[in-house]
């Protein structure tokens, strides 16, 4: 098992509910969708940048026989 997982523990349903309640208290119900939209677009940008960074796979010339 991962040392960090042992130290922090695996979050259970009560911990997840607690995190959601704290987020609602801090940001309110109206800000949560905006935050999630921003997070989703950030992840999308990261994936696109990771794809562009990888070299294109080499294709073999099909005309050679």
Relevant terms:
72% helix, 2 helices
List the helices and strands and how they pair.
Layout: H1 3-8, H2 13-53
Oligomeric form? single chain
Class inferred from helices and paired strands: mainly alpha
For the report, how would you describe the main beta sheet?
A: none
The percent of residues in helical segments reads over 70%
Distance between the termini: 52 Å
Shape call: flat
Strand content: under 5%
Roughly how many Å is the radius of gyration? 21 Å
How many beta strands in the DSSP annotation? 0
Q: Mean of residue pLDDT?
A: 78
Which residues form runs of ≥5 with pLDDT under 50?
A: none
Describe the protein's architecture and organization:
The protein is mainly α. 72% of the residues lie in helices and 0% in strands. It is flat and about 55 Å long. The mean pLDDT is 78.
How would you sum up this structure in a few lines?
This protein has 65 residues and is mainly α.
